[in-house]
Amino acid sequence: MTYGVRWAHSDEASSVADLLSAFHREFDAPTPEHAVLTDRVTQLLRQDTTWALVAGKPACALALVTVRTNVWHPGGVALLDELYVAPDRRGQGIGSAMMTELARRVRAEGIGLLEVNVDEPDVDAIRFYERHCFLASEPGSSDRAFYLWQEFCAGRMRP
């Protein structure tokens, strides 16, 4: 099944923002007002370095990806910033269909690495990404990979 998986354009920013907001609300995470988020998504989708993959009409699933240059990967590195499937549509293969299309595009664009950040307690997400060939350690090593960050947004910086 294809599940109506397609690449969204800037004119679909409002529905992309709807899905991003739904994802954040599901986990009680802060999200900007819809108009602010829609404007951000519109601007980002006008660039070659941000991609939005959606499924369904109306859209019920989203994969948001950003691409950056990298010294070790001449084609760049893609980061799967968000992958969300509406709760009532989960378990139907939509996420897997989206990952298949994302992998196809990453390869076609010559990108050398696809990354995703997952919280350690989210064992279902970890299992999902491992089924799609993501690794938590270098092959032959038992050392786990970690993602560390420091925010510089006003009001959110830690000392």
TrEMBL record:
* Top-level taxon of origin: Bacteria
Q: Please provide, alphabetically and separated by semicolons, the GO molecular function terms listed in this UniProt record.
A: acyltransferase activity, transferring groups other than amino-acyl groups
Q: Which residues form the N-acetyltransferase domain?
A: 3-159
Q: Which Pfam families match?
A: Acetyltransf_1 (PF00583)
Q: What keywords would UniProt list here? A: Acyltransferase, Transferase
Task: Tell me which InterPro entries the record gives.
Answer: Acyl_CoA_acyltransferase (IPR016181), Bact_Acetyltransf (IPR050832), GNAT_dom (IPR000182)
Q: What is this protein called?
A: Acetyltransferase (GNAT) family protein
- From what organism does this protein derive? Serinibacter salmoneus
